[in-house]
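Input C-alpha cells:
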C-alpha cells in the first residue's frame, strides 16, 4: 500500500516504518514527538494520525461496511443515550495518559460533563463508553492491546468491539477499578447492556442476520 503523505514537516533524519491497526505507514523521526507537538501537527495534517508514545502514525481509510456500521452505531447511541449523555463520532480523539497514546475511536459517549485536553475540544479525557469497529486485518490488535489501552481510562465503564465481517460484538464492562468482564454476543436478538441496543439493530441491512454457527 502506498504510504499516506502527511502535511507537516519532520526533522531531516527520518525513516518510514510499517504500521498496523487501520494505518498504512508513518514516518519515524530520530527525535520523538511530545503529545502537545502531535496536537499542533494534527491541526495542520491532511490525514488523521494516532499518537503512540512519541510516534505519530497515519491512519488509512475504512471500508464501506465500516462506514455504514459507524453511522448506524452513532444513530443508535443518540437514540438510546442522547438525552442524558454526550455522543461523539470518530472526529474526536481519546487520550490515554497511562500509556501516552491517542486514538480516534469510532464512537464515544460521555455521561458526565465532558472534560477535554485542549481548548479546541478535540481530545476527550472522560468517556463513559468507547466503540471500536473491527476489521479482519486489525482485529488482533484492536481486541488485544488497543482495548486494554482503552480500559486504562479511569472514567470508562463500557467498551464495545463490533465486527464488520460477521455478526459479533465483544462487550467489556467494568467490575471495579482493576477488573473487567468480557462477554461475546452473536445472537441477532441479543440486547447489549447499558446501551440496550440489539445486534439486529446494529447489523440490519448491512450484514446477513442469521446467527453464526
Amino acid at each position: 500500500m502506498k504510504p499516506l503523505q502527511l502535511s507537516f514537516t519532520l526533522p531531516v533524519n527520518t525513516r518510514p516504518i510499517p504500521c498496523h491497526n487501520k494505518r498504512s505507514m508513518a514516518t519515524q523521526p530520530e527525535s520523538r514527538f511530545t503529545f502537545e507537538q502531535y496536537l499542533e501537527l494534527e491541526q495542520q495534517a491532511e490525514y488523521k494520525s494516532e499518537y503512540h508514545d512519541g510516534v505519530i502514525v497515519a491512519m488509512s481509510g475504512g471500508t464501506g461496511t465500516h462506514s455504514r456500521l459507524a453511522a448506524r452505531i452513532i444513530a443508535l447511541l443518540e437514540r438510546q443515550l442522547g438525552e442524558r449523555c454526550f455522543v461523539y463520532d470518530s472526529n474526536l480523539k481519546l487520550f490515554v495518559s497511562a500509556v501516552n497514546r491517542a486514538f480516534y475511536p469510532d464512537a464515544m459517549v460521555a455521561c458526565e460533563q465532558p472534560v477535554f485536553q485542549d481548548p479546541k475540544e478535540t481530545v476527550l479525557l472522560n468517556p463513559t463508553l468507547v466503540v471500536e469497529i473491527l476489521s479482519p486485518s486489525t482485529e488482533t490488535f484492536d481486541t488485544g492491546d488497543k482495548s486494554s489501552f482503552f480500559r486504562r481510562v479511569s472514567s470508562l465503564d463500557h467498551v464495545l468491539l463490533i465486527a464488520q465481517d460477521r455478526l459479533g460484538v465483544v462487550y467489556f464492562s467494568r467490575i471495579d477499578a482493576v477488573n473487567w468482564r468480557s462477554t461475546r454476543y452473536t445472537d441477532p436478538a441479543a440486547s447489549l447492556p447499558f446501551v440496550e441496543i440489539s445486534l439486529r439493530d446494529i447489523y440490519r441491512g448491512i450484514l446477513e442476520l442469521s446467527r453464526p454457527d
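The helical segments are 35-44, 64-81, 139-150, 199-203. DSSP finds four helices and 15 strands in the chain.
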